[in-house]
DNA sequence: GATCCGTGGGG
DNA sequence: TCCCCAAGGAT
């Protein structure tokens, strides 16, 4: 059974930029980028990353803002922040040499059991099992698991451990992930091409399109947000850097906040700007409305041009604030929903600028 | 153990 | 348009 998978992998495995790579730094970066993120999305970010941070030492020396700028658009920004923190820890604790024991690797921020197994098997051919989304799906189908995978994690880890080819852990882990990504897909699995067809309980029972069982999901709540593009008399815009811990931590944004019951967007924006920045603004024309879905809620950004009236801007509910021109704004990492606001500002501003000469 | 944490693409 | 889900980890 292991042999049939490895033979399939030898002929049908994907050719990916990090395959055959022996530098643990490069393996590590690929594993972090691939968390909850498809290969196609990762590849351009992966290439760009090493132009900016060719070595682990250069990553450790970088400023967090540079790291987040390269990560901009990839999402789950704690991954980028943790990559940076872990690089500094590796330089400090291990002399810049990526650690090679499971215990040490698991202590690095952003690395859990699956990522640790992925790194140790891919970089050092160590027999450490993994349980990513692909493996969960493959094993759930293989065994015809009758509960959602996340309700049977200890069982799935046992199966992953038992199946792992201890003679070829590097290729085996890559192979089972490729199987899940290319044949044993979430919808319409290509069972006729599968090397494990004869071993697959779901296929034998005709259940491959019913399994794995779905996880329980609750409907996403929706929030309406008032957002301010605050202009001063020099034609600069006020942006703020979000607090470290939570959603989009460390990224820049246009200030604003949640609309309260019975409140107009004008009132909301004046209130939020006073609370967060301690300044007064006049709310003007609506610039754009942006709908965006995060992983656990949806928002509508109602964006208004505002005029700065007075008060000294203070970083009350953020890390930092800055007045910037539209030309400078590209230097700062912004979340995706905000990039639509920037695009709208450009569209609107260029004709204005040309009219003014 | 349940929640939080982004974004893009497919059906 | 809407829902699903993708190389998960931290709290």
Automatic annotation (TrEMBL):
Keyword Repeat among record annotations: no
Cofactor requirement: [4Fe-4S] cluster
The entry's keywords: 4Fe-4S, DNA damage, DNA repair, Glycosidase, Hydrolase, Iron, Iron-sulfur, Metal-binding
EC category: hydrolase
UniProt protein name: Adenine DNA glycosylase
Reactions accelerated catalytically: Hydrolyzes free adenine bases from 7,8-dihydro-8-oxoguanine:adenine mismatched double-stranded DNA, leaving an apurinic site
E.C. designation(s): 3.2.2.31
CDD domains linked to this entry: ENDO3c, NUDIX_MutT_NudA_like
Domain Nudix hydrolase: 220-347
Pfam families membership: EndIII_4Fe-2S, HHH, HhH-GPD, NUDIX_4
Domain of life: Bacteria
Matches recorded under InterPro entries: A/G_AdeGlyc_MutY, DNA_glycosylase, Endonuclease-III-like_CS2, Endonuclease3_FeS-loop_motif, Endouclease-III_FeS-bd_BS, HhH-GPD_domain, HhH_base_excis_C, HhH_motif
Family, per entry: Belongs to the Nth/MutY family.
PANTHER family documented for this protein: ADENINE DNA GLYCOSYLASE (PTHR42944)
């Amino acid at each position: 059974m292991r042999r049939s998978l490895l033979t399939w992998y030898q002929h049908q495995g994907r050719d990916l930029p990090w395959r055959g790579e022996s530098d643990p730094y490069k393996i590590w970066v690929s594993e972090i980028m691939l968390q909850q993120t498809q290969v196609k999305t990762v590849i351009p970010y992966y290439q760009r990353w090493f132009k900016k941070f060719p070595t682990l030492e250069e990553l450790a020396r970088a400023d967090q803002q540079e790291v987040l700028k390269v990560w901009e658009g990839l999402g789950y920004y704690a991954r980028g922040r943790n990559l940076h923190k872990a690089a500094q820890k590796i330089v400090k604790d291990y002399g810049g040499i990526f650690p090679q024991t499971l215990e040490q690797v698991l202590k690095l921020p952003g690395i859990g059991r699956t990522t640790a197994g992925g790194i140790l098997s891919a970089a050092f051919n160590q027999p450490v099992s993994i349980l990513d989304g692909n493996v969960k799906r493959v094993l759930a189908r293989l065994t015809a698991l009758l509960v959602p995978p996340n309700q049977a994690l200890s069982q799935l880890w046992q199966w992953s451990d038992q199946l792992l080819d201890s003679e070829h852990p590097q290729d085996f882990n890559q192979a089972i992930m490729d199987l899940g990504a290319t044949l044993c897909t979430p919808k319409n699995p290509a069972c006729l091409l599968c090397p494990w067809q004869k071993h697959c309980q779901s296929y034998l029972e005709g259940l491959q399109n019913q399994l794995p069982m779905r996880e329980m999901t609750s409907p996403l709540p929706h929030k309406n947000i008032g957002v301010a593009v605050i202009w001063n008399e020099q034609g600069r815009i006020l942006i703020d850097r979000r607090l470290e811990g939570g959603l989009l931590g460390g990224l820049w944004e246009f200030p604003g906040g949640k609309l309260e019951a019975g409140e107009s967007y004008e009132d909301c924006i004046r209130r939020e700007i006073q609370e967060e920045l301690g300044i007064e603004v006049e709310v003007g024309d609506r610039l754009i409305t942006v709908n965006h879905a995060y992983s656990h809620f949806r928002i509508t950004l109602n964006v208004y041009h505002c005029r700065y009236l007075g008060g000294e801007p203070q970083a009350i509910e953020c890390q930092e604030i800055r007045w910037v021109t539209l030309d400078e704004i590209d230097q700062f990492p912004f979340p995706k929903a905000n990039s639509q606001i920037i695009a709208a500002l450009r569209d609107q501003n260029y004709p204005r600028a040309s009219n003014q000469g």
